[in-house]
Design brief:
The protein has helices at residues 2-25, 41-46, 55-63. The N and C termini lie far apart (86 Å). The protein has one domain (2-28, 42-69). It is elongated and about 80 Å long. With 71 residues, the chain is mainly α. The longest helix has 24 residues, at 2-25.
């Protein structure tokens, strides 16, 4: 029974060591900060539609809460 517990402990320690070693020496690379080449914000603003309604015309008129600010 004691040798079985020792072997289980050795296996658990080996798995933990592999996990910690992989985390330390080869951490996962985050993709959140990766930029996508080919998307230029300047080009997006140049090609945007010019006839869009303003924020005041589109949304504030329907809220009613901010109508007191339009005096």
């Amino acid at each position: 029974m004691k040798t079985k517990m020792i072997s289980v402990l050795v296996v658990l320690l080996a798995v933990a060591a592999l996990f910690v070693g992989r985390t330390i020496f080869a951490p996962p690379i985050a993709q959140a900060g990766a930029t996508i080449p080919g998307i230029a914000p300047d080009q997006m603003t140049i090609h945007a539609s010019k006839g869009l309604a303003s924020f005041d015309d589109k949304y504030q008129a329907h809220i009613g809460v901010l109508d007191t600010l339009r005096q």
